[in-house]
């Protein structure tokens, strides 16, 4: 693996960069990508942010979000690609991943233990609570002034990937970085209202459906929710409306592993895993070709809902 100093050198000698995060973007991905774009602009690079999937509406307040471009064709000629919060190029989305693989220099910055080190320059810190922590350290290393716009994006990255600083990936390092972000004068109360206290009716309807169908197994140590595609379509929900639902099975007293089965296309399920203390769900997701973190991971499985549930739940029970 490369050092953060080597990442900084490569950024400074480049001219034009495309910056990308993973499909179905979450707060860490969006915040880290936008902060990186601001960093590159500050050091004189021309940079564009590309995505396959639309940015969830809850992140519409982030500085620079309006510059993110939907990728549906080649977006230019670049000598650098900076990929953030992404375990492998496939997670960019097929066409974008193929496009990026043809760029001469690919910087891969991530905090997932399952990262495949696919770049020509790789920096993966599995101890970081969020990729946003690494981007912050890169900004400091390069001597670039930390602006409020950068800080808003990085605060969002940290807040979302730590569950508003509640998950056990939150460390003293996380709090020190957060303190420096706040010292720039950002309106933390407003950011948290935008992130955690604004819900549209569709999102609440989907949550209501989910809560009435919570199931448990293994004497209450495994809990899960399933969202069939037909229900999602009937409610009028999108990917972003399922955000946070996976935390509810995990909240139940006595549960060690919480799961969310979400049908994203006919017979194709995105499965989210969360655990509290004992089970390494990165290993469980890895059985199905996924990955992530020891306490939060995911994968995609094809089949009918009953079959998929049984495979995953049986594996979770074995892990206990």
Provide a descriptive summary of the structure in words.
With 320 residues, the protein is an alpha/beta fold. The chain has two domains: 4-196, inorganic pyrophosphatase (n-terminal core), CATH 3.90.1640.10; 201-319, Roll (Diaminopimelate Epimerase, Chain A, domain 1). It contains twelve helices and twelve strands. It has a six-stranded parallel beta sheet, with helices on both faces. A six-stranded mixed beta sheet has the order 7-8-9-10-12-11. Strand 7 and strand 8 (222-227) form a beta hairpin. Helix 2 runs antiparallel to helix 5 (148-161), helix 4 runs antiparallel to helix 5 and helix 5 (148-161) crosses helix 7.
Sheet with most strands: strand arrangement: 3-2-1-4-5-6
Count of individual helical segments: 12
Helical fraction equals 25-40%
Rounded Rg: 19 Å
Structural domains: how many: 2
> What is the general shape?
globular
Total number of strands:
12
Low-confidence stretches: none
| CATH superfamily label of the largest domain | inorganic pyrophosphatase (n-terminal core)
Approximately how much beta-strand content do the residues carry? Answer: 15-25%
**Average pLDDT, to the nearest integer?**
94
Main sheet?
A: 6 strands, parallel
Order of helices and strands: HEHEEEHEEHHHHHEEHHEEHEEH
CATH class of the largest domain: Alpha Beta
What is the first-to-last residue Cα distance?
33 Å
Brief description of this entry?
The protein has 320 residues and is an alpha/beta fold. It has helices spanning 4-12, 27-42, 94-101, 131-141, 148-161, 172-182, 188-196, 201-211, 229-235, 247-251, 281-287, 305-319, and strands at residues 16-20, 46-51, 69-70, 80-84, 105-110, 121-124, 215-217, 222-227, 257-265, 268-275, 291-292, 296-302.
């Amino acid at each position: 693996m490369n050092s953060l100093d080597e990442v900084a050198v490569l950024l400074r000698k480049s001219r034009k960069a495309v910056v990308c995060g993973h499909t179905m973007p979450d707060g860490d991905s969006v915040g880290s990508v936008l902060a990186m774009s601001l960093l590159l602009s500050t050091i004189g690079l021309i940079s564009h942010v590309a995505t396959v999937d639309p940015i969830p509406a809850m992140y519409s307040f982030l500085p620079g979000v309006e510059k993110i471009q939907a990728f549906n064709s080649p977006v230019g000629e670049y000598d650098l690609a900076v990929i953030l919060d992404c375990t492998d190029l496939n997670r960019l989305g097929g066409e974008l991943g193929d496009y990026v693989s043809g760029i001469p220099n690919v910087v891969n910055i991530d905090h997932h233990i399952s990262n495949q080190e696919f770049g020509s320059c790789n920096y993966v810190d599995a101890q970081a609570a969020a990729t946003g922590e690494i981007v912050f350290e890169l900004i400091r290393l390069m001597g670039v002034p930390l602006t409020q716009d950068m800080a808003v994006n990085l605060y969002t990255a940290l807040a979302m990937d730590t569950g508003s600083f509640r998950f056990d990936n939150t460390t003293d390092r996380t709090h020190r970085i957060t303190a420096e972000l706040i010292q720039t004068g950002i309106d933390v109360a407003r950011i948290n209202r935008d992130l955690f206290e604004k819900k549209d009716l569709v999102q609440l309807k989907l949550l209501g459906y989910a809560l009435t169908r919570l199931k448990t197994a293994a004497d209450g140590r495994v809990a899960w929710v399933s969202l069939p595609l037909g229900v999602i379509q009937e409610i009028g929900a999108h990917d972003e409306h399922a955000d946070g639902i996976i935390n509810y099975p995990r909240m139940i007293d006595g549960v060690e592993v919480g799961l969310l089965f979400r049908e994203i296309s006919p017979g194709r399920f995105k499965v989210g895993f969360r655990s509290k203390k004992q089970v390494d769900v990165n290993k469980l997701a890895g059985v199905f070709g996924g990955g992530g973190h020891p306490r939060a991971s995911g994968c995609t499985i094809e089949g009918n809902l009953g079959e998929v549930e049984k495979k995953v739940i049986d594996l979770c029970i074995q892990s206990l």
